[in-house]
Amino acid sequence: MSSHVVDPILLASTSPQRRAILEQLDIPFEVVVPSYEEHDPPDADAYDLVREHARGKARSVAHLGGAHRPVLGVDTTVAVDGAILGKPANAAEAERMLERLSGKTHTVVSGLCLLTPSWEVVEHASTNVTFRELTPRELARHLAHGEWEGRAGAYAIQGRGAGLVERIEGDYLNVVGLPAALLVRVLAERFPGAYGLG
User: Fold this and answer.
1) Active-site residue 48, yes or no?
2) 9-196: CATH architecture
């Protein structure tokens, strides 16, 4: 079965990064805006949180999938020292986050939910990212570019944030915003031969 005769996945996300990764993988998809409101309690477990958000996003648009189309929900966050770093509200909060990540290893955690009317898979993936020790000048320069806006942990590894990183262990695309290795595995298991996988 070629990828041109399968039903496109419904992506419950407005993230341009997730769209770009699905295009890179040549997986057909259509974007739907999820009607799900995220709440991030500061003491939440990062793995439970992203799985819950991914499931909530997917379920919020599941009725649009019909009988055959799989719905994909994804959520990504940054965890360091047992705390979750979501999207900073302003530049001062972004600066505090980057200072906290400087010289340390943090974990980028993504939850993934793939569902159809007959089944639901919820899994997670994690990638360890180590930042260099950042100087005040580097911090100021990074903040001035505004790339921190709307980014968990206040950086984008596919942009200028790459210059903050010393090393990475795990799936790079997970840090960009979609755990591609996990998605490919789940699609190959659930739809063998479809989407050019399995």
Assistant:
1) no
2) Alpha-Beta Complex (3.90)
